[in-house]
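Priority: medium. Attachment 1 of 2:
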């Protein structure tokens, strides 16, 4: 069946529609400093969305001035928060500040804000002192402080639960202040703290602590912890099509990097507050089609789109039926998702294509054998890169870096298995098994700008291609789905067009972020032809092994913190 026939989606029943946006000079600039990476990224995104929802309702205006949000990532780091606040005030000339996740960040910026007399609205940080001994006439909060939540709880627990409590918190300002507030009233009421444990910020594995709790036999546990789950998996679950993925998919804490004869494990939960989910794309496509059909929808298989017309007012798809007849479908909006060799893309005026071809390809196999490890191994070897992945505990998906002109006939099974084990350098071993599939994949990057024209929008590989090293292909398509869902929902519910107008602007944020990460991973792990360049690559790889900052960059991008993680909350929770 032609893939082009599956790639274009139309919303039928046309209506008159035009875009117009007015802008005023001298906008009211609001500097927003929240965590968009690390363990509190989800919270930062939700607070931002709350701000945006209100501002959309007032048409982004206050006192006759257009409101402009300038967002900066706090990175769950007080020093970074202060640096970002200085930038917003001194370079961007904001009129007021808002946000702040961490209490430690609130304390870090307090004196600077007070000195500059810049109004600050704290949306989350619960630092007690900010509205107590270190209060300022320029600082306001719309959230609570730690004392309000935790002090009243202490006496209540003694009265209603018991007098022996295990105290557990993350090792940062809020965790310590909240624990101290609870402990004060708890002890005053006659309670006893059987233990007091603080875990590093970003912790997600509490198995050792759970053992201590069991041994202490408390009557209750007072815990100040955090955690979140987002990205493509979260979108699929929210959309109501994730049951099989949750049941059959594989949950991984991180990945392995193999180089210099060593195996380095990167724990994404610790580095970025998230893990990854391994589930075959073909299974997910099957789930989506089944769900659509069961909901009464229709998929026209073997109907090939051969052209598009009238993109400005009512996009019309010209398609060929299985019996060869040409027919037309007139739509209110249409989405071109017909792959990297998009036919529809060629019909859009003014399109610019940015692309890069890499000097290598991947030879991939799907084999009936146990995977090389319980998590993915990215192996960098002088002979070339190799990836050891899996579809299931009994199906291995492995890849070898080869020359782009390589031919499959030159790679019999025995040679493939030997080369795979050579590139592991003894840090792991892959057992030969029946090869079910064998393929060659060229490596390239591509971005289309703009990603819309009139009432027509691009999504997925029709708009961008990334090398598979960063595992971002289908994840990006889900990002576009989420962005378009919100824009179309807002248009049909409220008649608001601004989100549709800015689809390209919002989508290109995650597209270029994914292109950056995929390029970085690809050039970092693949052997280069240039000897000097390859030495630099090896030096960077060794630096990655020693640098928690580089490891965090890899983890945050791999789990989708800056791509799919931005949009999971755009989809409503399925009932």
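Attachment 2 of 2:
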């Amino acid at each position: 069946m032609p893939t082009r026939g599956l790639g274009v989606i139309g919303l039928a029943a046309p209506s008159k529609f035009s875009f117009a946006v007015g802008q005023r000079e001298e906008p009211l600039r609001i500097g927003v400093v929240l965590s968009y990476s690390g363990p509190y990224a989800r919270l930062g995104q939700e607070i931002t969305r709350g701000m945006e929802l209100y501002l959309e309702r007032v048409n982004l205006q206050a006192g006759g001035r257009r409101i402009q949000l300038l967002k900066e990532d706090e990175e769950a780091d007080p020093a970074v928060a202060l640096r970002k606040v200085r930038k917003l005030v001194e370079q961007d000339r904001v009129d007021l500040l808002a946000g702040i996740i961490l209490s430690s960040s609130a304390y870090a910026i307090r004196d600077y804000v007070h000195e500059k007399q810049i109004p600050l609205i704290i949306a989350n940080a619960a630092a007690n002192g900010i509205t107590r001994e270190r209060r300022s006439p320029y600082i306001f909060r719309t959230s609570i402080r730690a004392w309000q939540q935790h002090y009243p709880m202490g006496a209540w627990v003694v009265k209603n639960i018991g007098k022996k409590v295990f105290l557990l918190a993350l090792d940062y300002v809020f965790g310590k202040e909240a624990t101290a507030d609870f402990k004060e009233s708890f002890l005053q009421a006659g309670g006893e703290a059987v233990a007091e444990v603080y875990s590093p910020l970003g912790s997600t594995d509490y198995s050792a602590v759970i053992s201590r709790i069991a041994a202490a036999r408390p009557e209750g546990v007072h815990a100040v912890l955090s955690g979140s789950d987002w990205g493509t998996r979260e979108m699929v679950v929210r959309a109501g099509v994730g049951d099989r993925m949750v049941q059959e998919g594989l949950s991984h804490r991180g990945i392995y990097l193999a180089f210099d004869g060593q195996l380095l494990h990167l724990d994404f939960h610790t580095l970025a507050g998230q893990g990854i989910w391994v589930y075959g794309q073909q299974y997910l496509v099957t789930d989506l089609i089944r769900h659509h059909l069961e909901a009464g929808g229709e998929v026209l298989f073997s109907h090939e789109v051969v052209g598009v017309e009238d993109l400005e007012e009512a996009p019309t798809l010209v398609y060929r039926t299985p019996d060869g007849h040409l027919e037309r479908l007139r739509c209110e909006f249409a989405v071109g998702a017909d792959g990297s060799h998009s036919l529809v893309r060629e019909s859009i005026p003014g399109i610019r294509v940015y692309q890069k071809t890499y000097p290598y390809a991947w030879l991939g196999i799907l084999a009936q054998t146990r995977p090389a490890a319980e998590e993915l191994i990215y192996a960098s070897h002088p002979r070339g890169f190799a990836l050891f992945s899996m579809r299931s505990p009994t199906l291995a998906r492995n890849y070898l870096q080869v020359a782009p002109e390589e031919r499959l006939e030159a790679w019999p099974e025995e040679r493939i298995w030997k080369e795979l084990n050579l590139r592991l350098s003894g840090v792991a071993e892959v057992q030969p098994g029946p090869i079910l599939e064998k393929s060659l994949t060229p490596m390239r990057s591509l971005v289309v700008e703009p990603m819309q024209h009139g009432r027509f929008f691009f999504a997925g590989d029709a708009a961008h291609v990334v090398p598979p090293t960063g595992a971002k292909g289908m994840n990006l398509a889900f990002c576009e789905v989420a962005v378009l869902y919100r824009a179309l929902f807002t248009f049909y519910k409220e008649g608001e067009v601004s989100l549709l107008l800015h689809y390209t602007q919002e989508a290109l944020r995650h597209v270029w972020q994914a292109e950056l990460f995929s390029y970085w991973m690809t050039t970092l792990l693949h052997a280069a032809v240039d000897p000097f360049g390859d030495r630099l690559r090896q030096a960077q790889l060794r630096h990655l092994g020693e640098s928690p900052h580089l490891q965090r960059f890899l983890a945050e991008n791999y789990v989708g913190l800056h791509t799919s993680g931005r949009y999971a909350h755009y989809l409503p929770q399925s009932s």
